[in-house]
Amino acid sequence: MVLQQAWKAGTAGILMAASFAATGWAQVPGVTADTIKIGTFGALTGPGYLYGKLPMNGIEVVFDEINAAGGIHGRKLQLVREDDRCDPASAIGAVKKLIHQEQVFAMIGGGCSNATFAARETIDEAKVPLIVMASVHDGITTPTPPTIFSTATTSGIESAAQLQYAIDQGAKRIAIVSMRDSWGRARYNPLVEAFKTKNIKPVADEELSPDANDATAQVLRLKMTNADAVIMLLYPKPAAVFMRDAQKLGFKPLAIGQTGIADPAAFEEQVGSPGATAKFRTISMVRYTPQDPAVDKWRKAIETKFPGDRLSVFNLFGIGSAQVMVEVLRRAGPELTREKLVAALNGLKDFQTDVYPGPITCSETDHRCHKTPAWLAKDPGGPVRVLGATKVE
Amino acid sequence: MALFGRRNILLALLLLGAAAPFFVNSYQLFVANLIVVFVLLSIGLNILVGYAGQLAFANAAMFGIGAYGTGLLQVHFGLPFWMAFPLGAVIATSVGLAISLPALRVSGLYLALSTLAFAEFTRWVFLHWESVTFGAGGFKTPPVSFEPLPVSKPVGLYYLSLILATVLVVLAQNLVRSRIGRAFVAVRDGEVAAESLGIDLLRYKALAFGISGFYAGIAGGLYSAMLNYVSPEGYDLFQMVLHKAMIVVGGIASIGGSVLGAFAVVALLEGLREVKGVQEIAFGAILVVFILFMPGGIAAFLRRKVRGWDEPVHRAGPPPNPDPAAAARPASEAARP
Amino acid sequence: MLLLSYLLLSGVTTGALYALVALGIVVVNKATGVINFAHGELFMFSGFVAWSLHVGAGLAYPIALPLAVAAGFALGVATDRIAFRPLMKADVISLVLATVGIAFVLRGVARVIWGGKADYLAFPPITSPEPVMLGEIMVIPQQLAVLGGAIVVMLIFAAFFRLTRAGKMMQATADNAKAATLVGIRTERIYTLSFGTGAAIAAAAAVLMAPLTLLYPDMGFAFFIKGFAAAVLGGLTSLPGAVLGGLTIGVIEALAGGYIHSSFIEVSAFVVIMIVLIVRPTGLLGVSRVRRV
Questions:
Q1: C2-279 architecture in CATH?
Q2: Which residues on neighbouring strands pair with residue C137, listed in sequence order?
Q3: What is the complex's ipTM, to 2 decimals?
Q4: Which residues of B touch A180 (CB under 8 A)?
């Protein structure tokens, strides 16, 4: 009898423990014994796809590599994509769907600045960890959110670096030419702040639309101010138009690009006017251009998985942020919870990825984890040169 | 009244809508609220385009003006949502009245372009008048609170939207069956004939633009509160395409159709999340297939197949001409030289 | 003075881009009375096709250009068969929306095929890339090629409408489709022909313009809006009007950018359109069709 009772109690105990363990797992959304569900959102459609679909392709190849090697603590990574069309309402919808319907464990995402900024509130409320892959809006990471971390150089960091670089190169008369859309403004406003901090004034402030086909008016106006450096907060297309018209009109300032023009070789081809890019320098979130042998492995992975595609810097944005996610998932250990993941992110120090110029360091109080953009140049006809990385404090 | 007639179906939808917050998750509630807001937009546009026959492209801009108006009055003047919201709708209405002026001179594709130009101008103002609109970066609006009612913000806002939408749907139903509605239809079917019947073109065109501006303004105010954020991207030409799609899919010159069209388009957009990467292709293809195989939209289809979906412009009895396709055809000839 | 001449010239060269797009819109509208809202996407898609043939497959320019134009024509015919012919009796909004649907499909397909190749695909120019002196002013030769192209297309089609049987039939159809049918013109064929021709013009335009504008899936809409505006400004059915409208918009933009501020470039054209349409509701060179009672 006693034996039987003990046996019963024992089984009950084991069953209880088992069920406890089971509910324990069930309490962590998106995690099962052998999978972890990671969500991603950004533009899959519309012009913003460069900052959405392409980084997502990068994440996908990193996950494939990890899964082929057995996953993280025995769990395979699953990626769930949602489209936000670069639209704030759609981004809120996408994030709500990932969190409440898909029940993802964590997210890597964020392409367009306004869309991600609008979705921040929903993410903060649900306390789901997010690693931002491409959005740069300062409002996403300042004031420091509970669970959002950015491996993109935020616009404040980028702007400060751009201005510092112009000054270091001896520029006295610095001008701005920018796009007046959310992408452009997310960079423009911090740049103007950076000017104020340095107590200088831009000598000119011109605007160019993302679809512009002519920049004669802008170039002539800048030329009249004798600007010796121009900071271009422009997509590659309007920037190419600007450089071409500047060449045509004999205006040859130091031209400083932004992180979206991180491939000077492709840019030279886009400008298409011989010698026009001689004084072009660009800042980059990643250390390598897509042609660099150092990223051979990833080029092969992208071009195999997505036939017809060519490796782009946008793919690299995704690869870098996915590598950070993989690392912190590993550090969070086999008993995965969101709190542990956030703790691992908060404690991440000097982590090197395959793509970023400097190490990734986050802290409790600062979730802007990428502070070392690189500087790239390409002499007409010559190879791409990495001029070094700026560390912004 | 037929069992599956318009009134019963709309009533069933309303009941379903009222019960929704008790069994849906937070994402589904968001989508439901989106549908309700789009119902308002769809009806406003259908009154202008479907009933009054004005091929205008400024509805997304009106929607934006409602959202900006509501948001900015709260941010700049510290007005509570309860005051800013109706004022925002009033602003949208007055802008609607103002843009009816060009409609007196031009029609058809010329009206399309002049309203499109106005919409682009509005977006330019949102982007460039930074001291007021905060420019391209947009701005956060203060969160709406429903105290002392015991509901959370999303649920409260959802019910507010639902109540307003119900009232405005009923209002629109009655409007299109009144003298005003019939005057709209007369203007649509022939301006010269309408004028000879003593219909004042200026007055009725302005009224149609004003009403659609009002509906879009109410929708905009609710939308800004839903997102707690206003920025220019939401009110672009893609938004305009969505509005047009709602009335074409639902049924031109049909209030019931506008409601169903809003459901269909929002459901389609959210449903297409499943076909990652090819949403654009699927959206375009479905739109084309729908227009080809469902002429007159859902409303005309139901009118042919189900009893109780006629929408006479007179209260008494069915119209003398029971051909539904004829009833649902706006003044396309006027637009085609 | 040099500033003004530079601005005027840049206005004219940018305006030529708009004019080329507008010409295709006008050719379609002249015969069918509708606006093809997918015109910008037909333009974009044909440009990518030309890129694949010329840069991708390495075909020589004289072979790639006609092939791209043929592809454009085929796309135009497909647009007619899918989104116009079955809808001739439908209302104008359904027609507009059907072409918008086609535009979405083309944009999505282009994104899937070419979207992963680069952010903006460069297309080698047919002329020398070095700027040349024109009097005191520097110009990029390709810009002159676009301007020349716009004028040539305009002259060819003006002659086509005046001198050829097909052209006259197109005009008769546009004037009065019922009467045209009565005298034995197969109006449906005329519609197909004009959709195809409009898209072929878009393809030729894309090849000429791509070296200046670069190729990307979302380029179509911006050009369509400007082209539509140029066409309406010129009166919607007039070929010289389309060119005049395009150049006017280009020059207005350049002058607003040069003399006021570059932030006024994008909006200036629209403000002018609103004013022109209120003052002259049928555009600059349009024929008034208002019936007097």
A1: Orthogonal Bundle (1.10)
A2: C134
A3: 0.89
A4: 127-128, 135-136
